[in-house]
Amino acid sequence: MAESSHTYDVRFYHLEIELPMTEGSYNAKEIITIKSEVPTLDTFSLHFSDLVADSVKRGDTNLLWSTGNGYLRIELNRALGRGESTDITIFYHRLPNTPNNGFLFYSRGGNTLHNIAYTCTEPSDARTWFASWDEPWDKAERGVEIFVTVPDSFRVCANGKLDSATYDPVRRRRTYFWRHNYPIATYLICFASSVYATFSHWHHITPNESLEIKYYIWPEDSSSAVNSFRNTPLMMAFFSDTSLYGPYPFEKYGMVSLYPFAWGGMEHQTMTGVHRNWVIQGSESGIAHELSHQWWGDMVTCFNWANIWLNEGFATYSDALYLGYRNGRNYFLNLMNTRKNIYFQEDLSYRFPLYDPPPNQLFAYGHIYCKGSWIQHMLRYVEGDTGENPGIFFRALRVYGDSFKYRTANTEDYRRIHEMVSGLNLETFFREWVYMAGYPNYSVYWTKSREGDSFRVEISISQNNGNLAPPVFHIPVQVLLLGTTDTLLRTIPIDTSPQQTVFYLSFEPNQVRFDPQNWILHKATVYSAISDFSEGKAFSVAVSPNPFSRSLRITFSLSAPQDLELAIFDPLGRKVLVIEKGLISAGRHIYQIAGRGLKPGVYFLGLNGKYLQKILLI
Length: 618
Hints:
By secondary structure, the chain is an alpha+beta fold. The chain has eleven helices and 36 strands.
């Protein structure tokens, strides 16, 4: 792990900030606790941008330091041995008119009803408001304290619980003391200050134990907030059910309204920031999405940004699960299909694997969020967790949560947990779906014929998956064979392309539905069959020899003139040879087709785009 290869480990952040709330400057004092991970640590660096350092101390001793290229470099007066810890105190300030990056300040005006200051730093902007080792894998194990002093008309919210607030009547300043004693990544540390009103809900864990859910909103939005946030306790109860994710992992939860705000929501640990529009207009999916991050993103944090899909794919699937719980299975499937199409549309413009996305695509909604959520959905399917009640997939999630609670995890950690719980080898699944790009694009051909009292159904499944994708996705597929009154659901293992499968049925199938329960992220074209032709029907066809090597004789008969196209298709559905096209007279017609120009393999004879018969060139 990178944490063990770094020269030191951050254990704790203590921040004291004095905000004038008239412009974006502030004065600050920080105490950071570090532990040496090397035999001798005499210098170390912290990420530090858009800020001005004033002095650095260790106890009462002034230390030598320098800044530049986004770092604060500190020389210790006495080196630390491996495992030794020390506290370093840093005094610094932020200048007026500093660009809004991780710390943002906006003055009242227009739709900004009150002066507001807040932090929002994902992925790597915590360094713009306090000195830090700004990597997600280095959680401060002992948590964070944030003490903020503001004019007395303003309130402050932050991570954890409000321990106390003091008032200075001479300066008319109030100081808010927030403490959070859980491991936390830098990008999840936050505070916000504005003219906030508050109200609370309670999540009842047991008859004698409740958890506060507290909201900070502008007073003008109070009535809207009561309506928009009314279902948060229901979401909390849903996610924290012992059959789903398990108990909420922190000491409280809250949401704070932010405006102007570039995002919809941000899952700061125990204090989610949400766009004011969510307060006024509501966003049940967004609120559920951010709440679920408290488990997947905050309790278990992605090890680095190469694994961001673990955060966002989980949360996107979570809000779909909640909305399905509220509105029914069809609503859930419609939402999943909507997000599938968003991914398909984005994939047309750029394609990349979920793992280690390009830096400018870290928050690509179609890939990281939508496809990421489909990975969870397909894992459920592969593991056989397809019933109404949560099963093995969710058990694996809880084991994953328990195994990496308050720590970080990567994609391989997640794969190993699922393999351990399910007993499956998921290496191929993760290689194809996470480490490679794209999705399966299936062409499905089927035909039927009577054999005694049974019907023989032959299904051929080909894949044309495009660049950067595996040539074959090996996820098993389901087909539903429908007759007039009977149906049969079958699962087909996929080993190659084309994949040939034969079923024998006691009823005549009239239709084949591919992935009828919507478990796979895919596109598919099903070519319906025309077969079982016999004397007396409007059309009959025969081919010989089959397989063939040099030439193929095709004989067909029409009982009446017809406008048709008879052609040969490859397994990907591409037309490779037109045999006859136009108005064909009644009677018997014979064509001799040479195999020259065609590569050996499987082909299909088609009439007006419908599959007639498989032919094999050898």
